[in-house]
Fold:
Amino acid sequence: MNFIEPTDEEIRTIFLETPQYLWPTFEHMPLNCFDIGVGLLVFPGDISKDRARDPAYFADYKIDINDESTCPKMCNWSEIEFWNESSKSMRWFLGRIRWACMIDRGDYVLKNGYFGAGVGVVRFQNIPSVNDVQEVSQLKKAVEASIEDSVSNGTLNPLHNESFLEKDINGSKWLIGRSLNGLGYPEYFAVLPIDYRTVIHVAASLDNCWQRDETIPDVVEQKHLASFWDFLSQVHLILDHSGGWEVGSQAREAPGQAAKENDFQW
Structure:
């Protein structure tokens, strides 16, 4: 039987009506372990190619969030300065992971919705009225300030109080800000405080998630976000350096698929 490619309208209906999407099983991806000085930061994903291709952008596997000299400051092949003493934030960029959500129709698989998530540690500084990001209202101000340049040049919509969601994931209190980029696709900024000025920072974009020039329906976005919550559930800060973790990236089992319930409502 010859395969007949579904129309855009059929794809729209399938993604609206399918109860759950599939995505790669994060537990089977390489495991990355960074010593950040105050503990170990562990998360899944194949980050090795990006780190090898653009090493100037990425921090080492062993850093100290209280030592600015361990934070990449300038690209070594250009004059781009990542941060300076007057910047509102400085970032130890650790790795970038990508995955797609999909629907298995038996005779074919539909992919629609591609996440790209950058994981790092961010120190907020020089932001008026922000001296302890462990306080939620100050953390919101810090995240808003960190994207001001992107808002000014029109690549992101500004964040407002209603743009934020507080979400408990495995006992960790994440704050997630949601914006839209110039193409109208969602951008998320998930932050988890480490101390009064420093956070785990996961910036994620959801590309090619709906028809061009149309806003993604809430029901579709929620099903995509189930995969993002799954990823965040596997980002761990281990403060006592326990568990026999090996610093670096280690391969794990072969890939699989995941499908999970989602209770998210923005």
In short: The first helix runs from residue 8 to 17. Residues 261-266 have pLDDT under 50 and may be disordered.
